[in-house]
Amino acid sequence: MINAPAVFGLLLTVAYLLGAIPFSVLITKLKGVDLRTVGSGNFGATNVYRALGLKYALFVFLLDALKGALPVWYAMTLFPSPIIHILIGFTAIFGHTFSLFLGFKGGKGVATAAGVFAVLSPIPFGMTFLVVIALILMTRMVSVGTLAGCILLPLLLIQFKEPKLLVVSVSVVAFFIVLKHRGNIQRIIQGTENKLK
């Protein structure tokens, strides 16, 4: 018989440790680049783009998204409770933004959150993702697309009549991501935000 609390505790631990793996730092180090000295100094895929180009940035984004998607998907195969799925997702995002391997620092959580939400609510997330990509291509600013996505996804979840728990949880994560983009918002207002080349 499966010991559910023990399995849940183990899954939480794995979700945090997986989320905490700093793929952006590892990959840029392999290429001889210290990501902290490039661009914004952030540990996200956008800064990897500045350091190594689009191919590596997309690779890091995919790996960071999988850090969120895989533990949530596995939790959904083991437990029927949406609360557990959300807690596992939150833990992976927390691991990414407060990584044990980076002195409890990390990225802004966008890619890992994307992986979590893609599994929890694929259709609203897919629609949001398309809008985000379109805005990034139009404005050449990743932050504009990201911030718009943080507003749009909770609204789509409401429109699709997703459970209130999921709407609230996504809204909390979206708010946290917006807070992590305070500097970007200020630069957007000032017209000095970095643009993709």
What does this structure look like?
The protein is mainly alpha-helical. It has one domain. It is 75% helix and 0% strand. The chain is built from ten helices and no strands. It starts with a helix and ends in a 7-residue tail after the last helix.
Q: Provide the succession of SSEs.
A: HHHHHHHHHH
Describe the global form: globular
Total strands: the figure is: 0
Helix content: over 70%
Alpha-carbon Rg, integer: 17 Å
| Count of discrete structural domains | 1
- SS content category: mainly alpha
Provide a count of the helices. 10
**Biggest beta sheet attributes:** none
**Unreliable sequence segments:** none
Q: Whole-number average pLDDT?
A: 94
- What is the straight-line distance between the termini? 56 Å
Strand percentage: under 5%
Task: Report a brief summary of the structure.
With 197 residues, this protein is mainly alpha-helical. The protein has ten helices and no strands.
Question: What distinguishing features does this structure have?
Answer:
197 residues; single chain; 0% strand; mainly alpha; 10 helices
